[in-house]
Every structure is written in C-alpha cells, then in structure tokens.
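Bumping with the actual sequence this time:
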Amino acid sequence: MLKKARIAVFVSGGGTNLEALLNAQERGAIPHGEIVLVIASNESAYALTRAANHGVPGVAIPRKQLSQEGFEANIAVKLAEFQVDVIVLAGFLSILSAHFVKQWPERILNVHPSLIPSFCGKGMYGLKVHEAALARGVKVTGATVHLVNEIPDGGRILLQKAVEILPSDTAETLQRRVMEQAEWILLPQAAEMLCKQIAEG
C-alpha cells in the first residue's frame, strides 16, 4: 500500500485554496499525501465548513484569544494528535514564530499571490499584493509556492506560474484570476512534490 504523508492545512478565511487541495486529493492528484486536519486561526472561517463538507476534521484555534506561545502550543498539540508530516499554509494570515518554523524544517509550504521576490514581505497579503502590482503597472504577476524558513517569504521556491495582467483589471478580478490560473494549480502540485519526497524518503 502506498505510504502517504499526513497533511495539515492552515487557514484563516474562506478556504478557496483549501477547496482546491481537497478537490485535487479527491481526483487523485496528491497520491502521496492525505489531508488529515484543517486548522483555522478564527472560529468563523468558512474554510472549516469546506473541510467538514469533505469529511476532514477541522479545528479553530483563535489567534486573538491567545499569546503567540499559547497559539503555537495549541497548534503543536493538534499536529501531534493527528501525526502530521506536512503543513500547508493556505491563506493563513497569522504569523508563525521562527521557533515554531524551525521545528518543521522543509515541511511547511506557503502560497504567495505574486512572483517572489516581487510584492512580498511585511504587510503584503491578500488584495494588498494585487493592488501593489496594479499600482506599479507591471504587465505580469502570478503566484509562488515556497518552503517556509524563519525569514518571512524566505525559503526555497518550489513552483511559480505567471499570470497576465489585463488593462481592465481591478485588484479583485486580478486576485480571482491569479487564484484560478496559478494558486489552485500550483498548491496541489507542490503538496504532492513534498509529500512524495517524504513518503519515499
């Protein structure tokens, strides 16, 4: 029987990237991985409903009610309980400490809605990234999936995909197209790459 790496997906909001991962798993596109847990940084994240709809356990660990240490300690308990091998940050807006990240070397994937090193770093997330790309007047943007290290937006880049910016784009239309044409494609591919490496290692 094929050995599978156990994946936890961290979310904060609607969970569209989570949905892409779950759909990819169900069509057999992540054969070396299995999503076993979804952790949300707030109780109202719709991503928890998406997880339940796919039969995946979900838990809310509200960031605002806890210290950084308490937040990460609660996460660590759940990761141990579900014997997680890989963490995928899929629209997860809470910062993880360098101490936490060090405990998961080459095991945390993040998706960023630009072609790193463009439009990344402190304060660059969500619509802000697309607003910055439009303000700069670039013709091409995209998405990047990278392994996380202790430096925010640092770590080894696994996959990137370019997306054309159209003259009529708003931040919202650009965000949607980057998700559809890049993020939802790259994230399952990168998850499979990392899970295969772990499963066969």
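The tokens above came from a reply further down the thread. The CA atoms of residues 1 and 38 lie 25 Å apart.
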